[in-house]
Amino acid sequence: MRERRRTYKIRYPEKQEISTPVCPYCGRKAVIRPAEYVHGDQTIEPGTKLYVCSGYPACDAYVGVHKGSKRPYGALANSALRNKRIRTHRELNKLVQAGVMNKSEVYQWLAIQLNLPYSETHIGYFTEEMCDQAMERCRRVFRQHRERNKDAA
Q1: Taken in order 49, 44, 135, 23, is the CA torsion positive or negative?
Q2: Other C-beta atoms within 10 Å of 88: how many?
């Protein structure tokens, strides 16, 4: 007896339309620009894109764009907030590099610490205050880890 093969129709999820980000500082729409537009010769990875406030350079808010898409890495940020987000990532990475937690565990722990849903625990959307809270908690855990290891030695 011959076996009948079933065919399945594959349904791909519809592409979500990405709305143009709006600058939280001045209310203008952001536009996609090459990273060189902001960083000039200092661009780390040529060809990368940024959402830049249309009021740039007077308003210096921008955010990176995922490669090959129009999806921003987070919310537009001014210089002070971008700096805090970078420093927050560094504090999280210290925990991972020290073997305290893996990256996924760090974000799960941070979601609990900041009372956020895991799906919303993304530093690219953090405010300055949230960055401060995250850095403080990471530093505390890192110190405790270091002290425990010092006592064990």
Answers
A1: negative
A2: 21
Cα end-to-end distance, the chain, whole Å: 71
pTM of the model: 0.83
DSSP secondary structure string for all residues of 15-82: PPPPPPPB-TTT-PBEEEEETHHHHGGG-SSTT-EEEEETTTTTS--EEEB-TTSS-BSSS-B-HHHH
The average pLDDT across 135-144 equals: 96
Helix, strand, coil share of the chain (percent; to 5): 45, 10, 45
Q: Among 72, 70, 69, which Cα is nearest to 23's?
A: 72
Mean pLDDT of the chain: 89
Chain centroid to Cα 62, Å, comes to 13
* Backbone Cα Rg of the chain: 21
Please give the Cα distance from 131 to 89 (Å, whole number).
9
pLDDT digits (tens, 9 = 90+) for 95-124: 999 999 999 999 999 999 999 999 999 999
Q: Which residues contact 87 (CB under 8 A, 6 or more apart)?
A: 131, 135
